[in-house]
Amino acid sequence: MFIIKTSKYPIGIDLSDTSLKAVQLNGKKDKLFIQAINKISLPDGVIAEGEIQKPEVLAKSLNLLLDKPKFGVFSSKNIVANLPQTKSYIKIIEIDNGPNDISDSIENEIENHIPLALNEIFYDWQIVKKTKNKNIILIGAAPKNIINQYVDVFKRAKLSINAFETESIANARALLEEERPKFNKNDAASYGIIDIGAKRAAMAIYTKNTLVFTISMPISGQEVTEKISKILEITQDQAEKAKIICGLDETKAKGIINEVLSDNIKKLNNKISEALEFYANHYPEYETIKKIILTGGGAAIKKLDKLIEKSTSIEAEQGKIADNLIINDKIIDKIFIETHNLSNKIIKNSKNQNLSAKQNSILGYTTAIGLAMRNIYLDI
Questions:
Q1: For residue 58, how many other CB atoms are within 10 A of its CB?
Q2: Helix, strand, or coil (residue 356)
């Protein structure tokens, strides 16, 4: 292994309604590798729509997550955690140059863009671009009550919070070459990043080295699995395997899964088109989207990237996190490669043989990896 000494960097922890994921990285510059990694499922109702319902259960789950990793050893109690996408806001605003302090100007303007009162949110901002007459500002905000919930749980688990970040910011860092510290910012391109999780999905638009907005997408991994299960009258476990093995590939099992999901994919493509149109109309000064990148556990659905590419006429692909990390092939096999088998009796396979496929699950760890990268990139 690469580890000579344990990492000094915080652990990236990705919390969702269904699971917890943790990643700690080691190394420096362009030689980052995984020191420790783990994932555990959460019981139903511990977190619901991003709000913590059972703090004691969540605190115990966090301790279990870090005490018994599937690989390596976690060597810190400091963490960087995600804020739930549905409870946070990212917005680009413009502030005219004037005699007032820029912080005061932002404070006066923020309620015009965030649907909460100023005294109800925590917010942060950074200058994206300066011109002669105005400043382009990126604002991130979240309700105080939500942040306080997470702060309380981490204290119960005896963890120290180094920073909170939105999932979209962490995903961009894990996926894009533009986010690397020594990248020439003048060469930055524009992207759409679609994160498909178990319960929800969102698309973030990234351009000129910053996120400009995020929008919810009408698809989720769990929704797709439940639809397959209901229509084909098979168990949830069988439906999950069918989704992974067949996906949207018309050559697998006579295209049965592709047919079942056709309406979902149509709605998804329509929403992507709406987001691209909104971007073109409201941010005409920025360049067109170069590529659509898929991430999250649901991004591994076979042929999904190709169908999005066909619908939008924009190159689409699954994210390539491994490009930003040094990962030994044996470690990849141990941590991320999952083998799935399904009897031909479950889905009528045209070749009358059992279906099987291997899936690389690394895209499900995108947010946790991006969170873990934060302090390493800041220190470089």
A1: 24
A2: strand
In sequence order, what E strands does the chain have?
Answer: 11-15, 19-28, 31-41, 47-48, 51-52, 71-72, 78-83, 89-96, 121-130, 134-143, 160-166, 191-196, 201-207, 210-217, 291-295, 315-318, 337-342, 355-360
Q: Does domain 89-142 have CATH number 3.30.1490.300?
A: yes
Which residues share a beta bridge with 165? Answer: 82
To the question of pTM greater than 0.85 for the whole model, the response is yes
pLDDT at 79: 97
Residue 275's pLDDT is what? 95
- Among residues 246, 358, 247, 365, the alpha carbon closest in space to that of 305 is found at 247
* Alpha carbons within 13 A on the beta-carbon side of 337: 10
Which residue spans within 199-344 are E strands per DSSP? 201-207, 210-217, 291-295, 315-318, 337-342
Closest among 189, 161, 186 to 292, alpha carbons compared: 189
Start and end residues for every CATH 3.30.420.40 domain found in the chain: 11-86+147-181+365-379, 216-363
pLDDT the model gives residue 186: 74
The CATH number of the domain covering residues in 11-86+147-181+365-379? 3.30.420.40
